[in-house]
Amino acid sequence: MASHNSKKHPRADAQSEEDYNQVKNALKHPSTKRAKQIDSDTPFDQLEELLVKTRKDVKTRNVLHWFRSKDLRQEDNRGLHAASQKAKKSKSNLITMYLFTPKDMEWHGTSPARSDFILRNLRILKEQLEQKNIPLAIITAEERGNKTEKVMQFVKENDVSHIYADMEYEVDELRRDIDLGKKVLDESDVSLDVLHDQTVVIPGTLTTGSGGPHKVFTPYHKAWLAETKQNAELLDLVPPPEANDTDVAKQFEKLFSSSIPELPESKQYASKEEQDRLRELWPAGNDAGMKRLDHFLNDKIEDYKAHRSEPAKDATSRMSAYHNSGIVSMRAVLAKTKQFNGGKHFDEGDVGVAAWVREIVFREFYRQLTIITPHTTMNLPQNLKFDFVQWEDDVDGWKKWCEGRTGVPFVDAGMRQINTEAYMHNRLRMNVASYLRANMLIDYRLGERYFAEHLVDWDLNNNTQGWEPSYTIFNPVTQAQKCDPHGDYIRKWVPELAGLKGKEIFAPHERLSKEDFEKLGYPYPHVDYAQSAQRAKQRYKQDLANADP
Ligand SMILES: Cc1cc2nc3c(=O)[nH]c(=O)nc-3n(C[C@H](O)[C@H](O)[C@H](O)COP(=O)(O)OP(=O)(O)OC[C@H]3O[C@@H](n4cnc5c(N)ncnc54)[C@H](O)[C@@H]3O)c2cc1C
């Protein structure tokens, strides 16, 4: 029977040695030498160069916008708007398409929650567009390698003269667009344009005094604030597409009748209960996303700076899934935030606004890092030396980490949150990542993959940067005492410990008698914190000293 427990999608409660090896197999990557070659002639630069030639002045017939999983909205969508304008100018038709590639979902390990979120958003989008007589055709590409063929076939069948899309910055997606661009060059009557839409400031454009793109966050953040202050039009929105004439319905009957696919077998929810729970937590559609933003601005943002790192307060926006699938546009989000700030620039009004926008700038910065060091989206760390660390094969530790049974309350609470909500608070993401790659010395890429397989907001850029290994090792007990001072977050997610008083909850094995601890039904820590942190530091130091990337 189709199940989320299937071999292709290991679940927290089904982690066996076989699953562990399967995850490991999904983490193949080029050599560090090859990574450097890729960085020296980036797919982003190659695509930008190609687009100069593929943006052709051809006679307009039908105009296509190709939606991707990162721009699933009609509101303030740059590519869609450009396509609509082109169609209107020549009194031709706008048609749209989404290429559904279940094998891409397998390849990236996309979670059931995110896969379902994408399909639910597509359904809403299709209905909205149909009210304007604009078809949204769902085309299935059976193989990862036959996308260009599928798109060109669609282009021919529907007499498309202009293809528009919004750019995705990861290596595979850039290479897909390069491949399409090369085909378009061979066609005398087809044009291709791929626009920047994911960020307010285009990746790669914020440069240092010596001309190269910023690679360090603090100066990038400063430059970003200056750029958006000086060029207020960066937050200007474009309108949704204009309607087609009604006769289009007949002409493109086949496209209108294409239906939203079912979730692939390996991406199905484990149960109806899980499906209902996650759908309620993550309602689809631009309206739902903007409503969530309003709620955050009205009720939470003022306290964001003070409480953002306290998971029990749920003081953050939970907007990431909407940002990453492009359900809301970042321009719309920031324009609204500025309005809330009384029209003042982001760093000049409310301190909560300044702190919140700073996080969004991290998101923009990580896209800049992706285009300049594309190897980071190929299962390799930013600092290539970390590829030389000898990780441990600790299957038992891995299983405990996945299930939230490491014996470290703060870590376990985080893991149980992700397993229940397809989301984890940022402070916990930092702590569970540190625990896996340092205290357990398990290859951080397994954790990275686990996040992909479980998060609704999974994003390759943010996830790889979040998992970037370093010498920093968090102490999850002191972290919990600082960020969850009353233990409420731990109590919520680790009910075995709910009855503990005061500081007992942060390290029950140390703070209770052996007898009382064993009554809890909660495990002893998988490793000793101090010894394991020391071991990791030594391992990193020794292996990085010998690394030759
Ligand atoms: C190990 C690790 C893995 C992560 N994986 C992902 C991931 O797959 N997808 C993802 O979107 N974020 C990821 N993050 C970043 C961050 O944890 C989430 O963006 C954040 O928790 C989302 O919650 P929120 O929307 O309530 O954020 P808020 O605190 O409300 O922040 C506002 C927005 O800013 C952006 N943002 C916030 N923090 C970060 C950050 N550290 N880096 C980049 N952008 C940020 C998000 O778009 C977020 O919605 C990861 C962080 C770590 C440490």
UniProtKB/TrEMBL annotation:
Binds 1 FAD per subunit. GO terms for molecular function: deoxyribodipyrimidine photo-lyase activity; DNA binding; FAD binding. One of its GO terms (cellular component) is cytoplasm. One of its GO terms (biological process) is entrainment of circadian clock by photoperiod. InterPro entries: Crypto/Photolyase_FAD-like_sf, Crypto/Photolyase_N_sf, Cryptochr/Photolyase_FAD-bd, Cryptochrome/DNA_photolyase_1, DNA_photolyase_N, Rossmann-like_a/b/a_fold. Residues 1-40 are annotated as: Disordered. Residues 62-200 form the Photolyase/cryptochrome alpha/beta domain. Its cofactor is FAD. Belongs to the DNA photolyase class-1 family. This is Photolyase/cryptochrome alpha/beta domain-containing protein. It comes from Baudoinia panamericana (strain UAMH 10762).
